[in-house]
Amino acid sequence: MRRITIPALLADRPQWEAFVQDLRQGGVAALPTDTVYGLAADATSSQGVQAIYEMKGREEGKPLILFLAETDQLGELGIRPDAVQAKLLSTFWPGPLTAVFPTPAEWQVRFPFPSLGIRVPDHPEVRTLLAAYPGFLLTTSCNKSGQPPLMDPDAIAGEFAGSLAWLLDGGPLVPSPPSTVLDLTASPPRILREGCLTRAMLAASGIFGNA
To answer: Which of 52, 82, 101, 178 falls 20 to 30 Å from 139 in CA-CA distance?
Structure first.
């Protein structure tokens, strides 16, 4: 396991190239976010995605979340939010909102779920990394399933010492609720998990209509 800060990784071209190669070949990285530490794998690497499920002891039926650097990248995925959805995203992205959209057609071969949760984290270093990465990362919280998320890189190193390829050290994080998960495939949208953002906060965007 290599342990390094995100700025140091981005500034060191050989290490950056090794990082990209490792993830493309199925390696898993732990990285800080604006809520909790996450586990990340290259979205095109079935080996890396499977490794996350095995590391966490996660049920296969629970999909991972796609991280984006910017909202504009939705267009690259073939996702075009309507006016109300766009207002919601402009209000809460970057931030602790996971928006669930129908899985884009080109992703259905490698992502066996009808919907895809997407988030733009409010963590400048992570977004810089996401912008530089030649592809997309699928993520989930850094913990064993059923256990609290790990907020300290030392604890992560101890828990996943034999499984992680990279630990991107952002220092200990302040305990925080997870992101709020909002299902935009339903009408009106449904909150699947209430985290940092409450229903009242989301309602101000008009996303729930008159419901």
So the answer is: 82
DSSP codes, 149-200? PP--HHHHHHHTTTT-SEEE---PPPP----EEEETTSSS-EEEE--SS-HH
Number of H helices, E strands in the chain: 7, 10
Q: Quote the radius of gyration of the chain (alpha carbons, Å).
A: 17
**Shared domain check, 126 and 109:** no
Per-residue model confidence as pLDDT tens digits over 104-126: 888 877 788 999 999 999 999 99
pLDDT tens, position by position, 122-168: 999 999 999 999 999 999 999 999 999 999 999 999 999 999 999 99
Question: How far, in whole angstroms, is CA 68 from its chain's centroid?
Answer: 8
**Which amino acid makes up residue 96?**
P
Q: Which domain holds residue 21?
A: 1-69+120-177
Distance CA 123, CA 165 (A): 22
For the whole model, what pTM was predicted? 0.94
- Dihedral sign of CA atoms 184, 190, 196, 200 in order: positive
Please choose, from the candidates 68, 123, 56, the residue with its C-alpha nearest in 3D space to the C-alpha of residue 98. Answer: 68
83 and 105 in a single domain? The answer is yes
- Is the domain of 18 the same as that of 58? yes
